[in-house]
Design a protein that fits this description.
The protein is α+β, with helices and mostly antiparallel strands and about 220 residues long. Helices cover about 45% and strands about 25% of the residues. A hairpin with a 2-residue loop joins β2 and β3. α1 packs antiparallel against α2, α3 runs parallel beside α6 and α6 crosses α8. The C terminus is likely disordered.
Length: about 220
C-alpha cells in the first residue's frame, strides 16, 4: 500500500497488469489492466495494491483541459511501444484513445465522495443525518478508505475547482473565491498555498497588458 501522497504535476497511470484500488481527490477507482487514471496537478491519493502486485506505466501530461478521471484504452501495447522511445508522444496517443469509464458506487464512502465532488458546499452533517449515519462513524469510515476525513476531501474538492479557474480563466481572484464558496480571496489564497505551495497570483496564466490593467484594481499587481 502507498500512503496518501501528492504529485506536483499531471500524469496518466496506465495499468498494464494486476489490479489496485486508488482512493483520491477524484473518488475511489478500482482498476484492472487497460484502465487509466488521469491525475491533475497537485492531486493526492492513496493506493492499495492486490497481493500479486501491479505493473503501472506512468506518463507525464502537459496542461489538461476537461479529461475524465477514469478511462480505458483498447490498444495498450501500442502505447507501451511508443513510450519506449517517446513518452510525450505516448501520452498524446493515450489521450486520443482514452474512453471514459464510470463505475457505480459500491458503498457509502463512494457515495459521499461523489456528492462532495458534485457539491463541495454540501453539509456532511446533513448528509449523514439523511442516511441515518452518525457523523463520527462517517468521519472514521471515510478516513479508513480515503486516508482523509470528509471535511478534508471537501476542502480539496473546493480548492481544485478554484485552481482550475485560477489557471484556466482570466476571472478576478476575488470573483473565483466567491464562486467557489471561500469566505474571501485571502481564504482562497491560504487554501491554494496548502495544496500547491504557491499563491494564486503565481498560478495565473499570462495576460495581455490591457487585461492586466483592468484587473489590477481588484487583485493587485499583475505578474507575467
Amino acid at each position: 500500500m502507498l500512503d496518501r501522497h501528492r504529485h506536483g504535476g499531471a500524469f496518466a497511470a496506465l495499468l498494464l497488469a494486476g489490479s489496485y484500488v486508488e482512493a483520491g481527490d477524484t473518488g475511489r477507482h478500482r482498476v484492472q489492466a487497460g484502465d487509466v487514471i488521469i491525475h491533475q496537478a497537485w492531486e493526492s491519493h492513496i493506493d492499495r495494491f492486490h497481493p500479486r502486485g501491479a505493473e503501472v506505466l506512468t506518463l507525464p501530461l502537459a496542461e489538461l483541459g476537461p479529461v475524465p478521471a477514469l478511462g480505458r484504452v483498447a490498444d495498450v501495447d501500442a502505447i507501451v511501444r511508443l513510450a519506449e522511445h517517446d513518452r510525450v508522444a505516448a501520452a498524446g496517443l493515450l489521450l486520443t484513445r482514452l474512453v471514459a469509464v464510470s463505475a457505480p458506487p459500491e458503498d457509502w464512502p463512494d457515495l459521499l465522495a461523489g456528492d462532495l465532488l458534485a457539491d463541495p458546499g454540501l453539509s456532511i452533517g446533513d448528509w449523514a443525518q439523511a442516511r441515518q449515519l452518525h457523523p463520527s462513524s462517517i468521519a472514521r469510515g471515510f478516513r479508513q478508505q480515503f486516508g482523509i476525513t470528509p471535511a478534508g476531501f471537501r476542502f480539496n474538492a473546493r480548492t481544485h475547482n478554484a485552481l482550475r479557474d485560477i489557471r484556466g480563466s482570466h476571472d478576478t481572484l476575488s470573483g473565483i473565491a466567491a464562486k467557489h464558496g471561500f469566505a474571501d480571496q485571502a481564504h482562497m489564497t491560504r487554501a491554494t498555498r496548502m495544496i500547491t505551495g504557491l499563491p494564486p497570483g503565481r498560478l495565473r496564466p499570462s495576460r495581455p497588458d490591457h487585461a492586466c490593467g483592468a484587473a489590477r484594481g481588484a487583485d493587485g499587481p499583475c505578474t507575467h
